[in-house]
Amino acid sequence: MAVTKIDKTQLKVGMFVEAIEGTWQDSSTLGRRFTIRSGQEIDMILNSNISGVFINTALGKNTSGLPLHSGAKNIKSATKQDRFETATRIEGHAAEAKSLIGDIFEGRVVTVEAFTPLVDDVARTMEENPSLYIGMSRLRSRDSATFLHSLSVAALLLHFGRSLQMDDETVQHLCIAGLLHDIGKLSIPKEVLQKQGPLNAAERNIVEQHASLGYDLLSANLNMPTLVLDICRSHHERLDGKGYPDHLIGDAIGKEVRMSTICDVFDALTSARSYKKGWSSQQALSWMMCHEEQFDKGLMWQFILSLDPEMTKGIL
Fold first, then answer.
1. Please, are residues 158 and 122 in contact by the beta-carbon 8 Å criterion?
2. Stretch 69-94: mean pLDDT, rounded?
3. Which helix (H) or strand (E) holds 56?
């Protein structure tokens, strides 16, 4: 599948639209995936709130001379030394994240500035070799699972935000949100959180309380950015309203929260647990693309395009 992002002003008759970026009230007229068949259809899109379009050049026309849009960089091959150095850095990042999260959990006031050295370190490591960083951060034990998962989500959100050319403050807040989004799990009994195997209904209900528990905990810290609070509370919401804790639907879920849901689920699916083998990146992304009731498809394409091509073989 050859998918690339273009501006809506570049649309031509004969292009196949795979997904859109932004809100479009007329989506029911043409459907979710469609071929542009007339200038009238192009005008409908031009006059909408759509900010970008993803076209599938395997199913329709391309824009002559248009380069593929990709936030991914060429990734150097990873040597044993690269892996050792990255693993050492991740251990340090995880220890720092654990300390900051612990301070907040214990009720100590932590400023945004306290996160700056860690965010900067994560950013530098991701710039050097994002796929290696993400892969290394999945090597987790049961005791460190929550912290390393949060570190992975933080790195993915930082990388995702940068690929979308978001401003530095927003990218910083996305990274902090990734680090803190599961802080409520520290209030969940370990025997439930670390259970080997699927949870029963009662246990699932207990775990689902972590989103609101974390939000309440972070809200007590007057320095916490609104974006961090929103992601902590709402990262398990779904577009169809079947998420939790507030059962938000569609546009009620902000863009940054939708981004966090994508990063959170991607890391969860690709991470090994004591009771399951982690999926490959391709398996996880393919599954997520088939669940539009949960994930913003336009943002999904942007997330895929931001990743190392080696992680997305068979998707693009």
1. yes
2. 67
3. strand 52-56
